[in-house]
Each structure stands twice: as structure tokens, then as C-alpha cells.
């Protein structure tokens, strides 16, 4: 077997098993320890692995967070059914906060003309809601993050501290045992303040966000009340939510009844 062929097989093994040892390379590909080490050195030079004591692992993968309009096109169907369900939880007279996430934008799109007050740091959410007659809009002023379409900074935090609302709807990049995470600290600081101002904190996250940990943690699982998603999570994740007293609502758009799991029920 040529070295190039063996290197591809080693990478394939790593993708499936996360790590490989020199002994495994020797056994799997019938080569000496010196040859196995040379293979790992070659892969390290190509920045395809990280060498460890006696073996190697794959380097961490950091998914690039695309701009706002690109993210609107990511799992749009799932965002719509989550947003529709979230909008159905908003009652006439409610005072709510909508953050600047694309899934929360779907919630804004499904809001009717019922009388309510919306506070937001999203210029997109404010624009969408401006056509709905019954809704009063408070747009939080601050510095505009142009690519991701949110307002942030000291003035946003200061304004938020003056509002106390019934419900807050927030999106995330990841939700896991490590808490709720996003890609940008500036966004996370605003989200952290938002959840402090609400009686009920509702997270909107499609199934691809579950079990994911991103760069900046803005809240613990115990800081939220309800997660709305589009697919029933695996049992370990449901147990994690129950441990932290987080209710789960799985939205459904095929005519069947939505699945709701109350942490207070056995």
C-alpha cells in the first residue's frame, strides 16, 4: 500500500473514531511503528491532524457563522414552523422582547395584528412588525452590527434595564450541557440582559442547534423556561432539559398535535 492511500485511510478512521494510536496504525495497515509515526508527521505537516502522545486526533472544526440573509435561507421550513408556534404563544396585551435571530424573525412574521408591545434590538424585526397595526414597537438604539443585523452596546443594555416583560423570545447558535451559546460576544451580552428582564424565557432552536456548543455562553439551561424546536430530541437531551426544569415544545406542521413535555410531569 502506498503512503498516500494509507493517509486517506487514517483520516477516514479518525473521522469515524475521533482518535487513532500508533499501535492501531501498525495493526490495521501492517506497517512498522516508524512508518506509522512518519504517516502522522506527514498528516500533521498538512494540518490535517493534531499529534498526541502515542497517536493523533482530528483538529477542531469551527463552523463559520454566515451573514443574516444567508442564515435566513438555512433550514427555512423548520424556522417557519417554530416561528409559527412561538407566535401562537403571544396573547393580546403581552409585552415581549424579540431578539435579532433569524428564527425569531419567523415568529415576528407570523404575529397578527393583536394588541401587544414588542421591544427589539433587530432592525429586521422592527421593519416586519411596522406593518402590523396593533403592535407597538420599541427599537433599542445602539451600534449596528451590519452583517448580522443587530443593535448592541452600552445604550442597548441601559435601555433594556428599564423594561420588564411577560415573555422573551431568543435564538441561539447552540444549546447543550454547556448552556446557551452564540458566535459573537456582543450579541450574547444583549441576550443575557434580555432574559433577565422577562418573566418567561423562550428559546427558538431548530434540531441542528441541539447538543451544539459555540463560542460565547450567555446563559445556563436553568435560566430558560421553554425550548421550541422542530424535532423530538434524543432521550439524553430531553433528560438534560428536565434536569434543568426546561419545558419542551416540539412544533409540528403536518396536522398532528404538537408535542409538549412538561418538566413537572413524570
TrEMBL record:
Pfam families noted in UniProt: DeoRC, HTH_DeoR
Keyword Repeat in record: no
Domain of life (superkingdom): Bacteria
Domain HTH deoR-type: residue ranges: 3-58
Record's keyword terms, sorted: DNA-binding, Transcription, Transcription regulation
Stored PROSITE patterns: HTH_DEOR_1, HTH_DEOR_2
GO molecular function, one term: DNA-binding transcription factor activity
Protein name: Transcriptional regulator, DeoR family
Amino acid at each position: 500500500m502506498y503512503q498516500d492511500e494509507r493517509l486517506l485511510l487514517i483520516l477516514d478512521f479518525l473521522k469515524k473514531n475521533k482518535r487513532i494510536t500508533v499501535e492501531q496504525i501498525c495493526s490495521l495497515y501492517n506497517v512498522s511503528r516508524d512508518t506509522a509515526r512518519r504517516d502522522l508527521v506527514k498528516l500533521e505537516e498538512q494540518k490535517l491532524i493534531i499529534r498526541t502522545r502515542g497517536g493523533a486526533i482530528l483538529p477542531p472544526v469551527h463552523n463559520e457563522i454566515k451573514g443574516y440573509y444567508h442564515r435566513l435561507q438555512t433550514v427555512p421550513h423548520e424556522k417557519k414552523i417554530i416561528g409559527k408556534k412561538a407566535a401562537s404563544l403571544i396573547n393580546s396585551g403581552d409585552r415581549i422582547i424579540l431578539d435579532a435571530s433569524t428564527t425569531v424573525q419567523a415568529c415576528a412574521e407570523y404575529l397578527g395584528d393583536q394588541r401587544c408591545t414588542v421591544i427589539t434590538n433587530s432592525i429586521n424585526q422592527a421593519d416586519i412588525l411596522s406593518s402590523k397595526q396593533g403592535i407597538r414597537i420599541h427599537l433599542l438604539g445602539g451600534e449596528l452590527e451590519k452583517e448580522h443585523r443587530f443593535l448592541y452596546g452600552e445604550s442597548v443594555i441601559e435601555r433594556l434595564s428599564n423594561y420588564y416583560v411577560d415573555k422573551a423570545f431568543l435564538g441561539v447558535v447552540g444549546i447543550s450541557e454547556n448552556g446557551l451559546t452564540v458566535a459573537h460576544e456582543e450579541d450574547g451580552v444583549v441576550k443575557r440582559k434580555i432574559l433577565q428582564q422577562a418573566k418567561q424565557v423562550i428559546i427558538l432552536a431548530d434540531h441542528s442547534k441541539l447538543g451544539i456548543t459555540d463560542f460565547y455562553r450567555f446563559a445556563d439551561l436553568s435560566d430558560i423556561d421553554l425550548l421550541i424546536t422542530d424535532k423530538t430530541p434524543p432521550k439524553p437531551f430531553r433528560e438534560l432539559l428536565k434536569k434543568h426544569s426546561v419545558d419542551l415544545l416540539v412544533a409540528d406542521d403536518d396536522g398532528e398535535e404538537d408535542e409538549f413535555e412538561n418538566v413537572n410531569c413524570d
